[in-house]
Design a protein that fits this description.
Helix content: 40-55%
Strand content: 15-25%
Number of helices: 12
Oligomer: single chain
Shape: globular
Distance between the termini: 30 Å
Number of strands: 12
Order of helices and strands: EHEHEEEHEHHEHEHHEEHHEHEH
CATH superfamily: Divalent-metal-dependent TIM barrel enzymes
CATH architecture: Alpha-Beta Barrel
Amino acid sequence: MDDTPPRALARSPIGVVPIIWNNADLRDLRPLMPALEVIGEMERLGFAGTQLGIDFPAGVKLADELAAHHLRLAEVYAAFACHADGPAPGALDIARHRLAELHAAGGEVLVVALDRCDDRDDWVGRAGRAPGLTDAGWRSLGDLLDTLAGEAIASGHQLAFHNHGGTYVETPDELERLASITDPRLVGLCLDVGHAILGGGDPVAMLHQHGERVIHVHLKDVAAEPLRALREGTMTGFAAALRARIFAPLGGGVLELPSVVAALASLHYGGWLMVEQDSSWEPPSEAAAIGRRVLDAVLRWMPAPAPRVG
């Protein structure tokens, strides 16, 4: 008889974002690892799912390849340009294409974010003073997300909006504004705890603020020294931060991972836990393994919450 108590977040599968192997932002930081080898590494390291990665197969071929490695397509990431007055022309078409890719491969969550833009990129790490969307821009963005989320739900998927540094939805106030202008029955949230810290937020407070609207989570840690440089203005821009390895393996930065896990447990969260690190000093598989094992340890040591009543 196994007397081991259930781990915290026992209903939450653990996935990984393949950007650690194949950087989507900076081509010179992209190791030459073929997509099928990346998928094999994910299985070897014990992950249950993945985001759609660079050069992955598509549709049924991807579904079959992942199934052969005991993996699921946890998410497809869709980012589109957005200016101060709202999403750029063609933004909805870009997101619809990504939704179609998700559906064709039997994936689960459409994670939507804004592309980084020049007006915001120099303010990464101190975005509270950055220029923001106009009222018309907020309305346009909210309408697009409600429309897209309705289409996602109709095809059997969830939509989760992802906060991101260097974009118009970066700070806690901006994420709150986005939540207030979108339909909570349609648009969920993907809280990226690393980007939350870059945006000046407290991930634990943001989890409690948005509660069950958080349906998907990206777990990434933030290195202290690059964060300090961004906040002081001695380093500017998201690309420079990536080159300084702003994102560290879980347990190696300022993120209070046990507090994040406890907050999720208190919400009876059951969505994906996606381990993510955009760039690393370590070999990619080593960095991914560290993140996986550190998260395992926190989940194992933290008691599961009392069952929900009612």
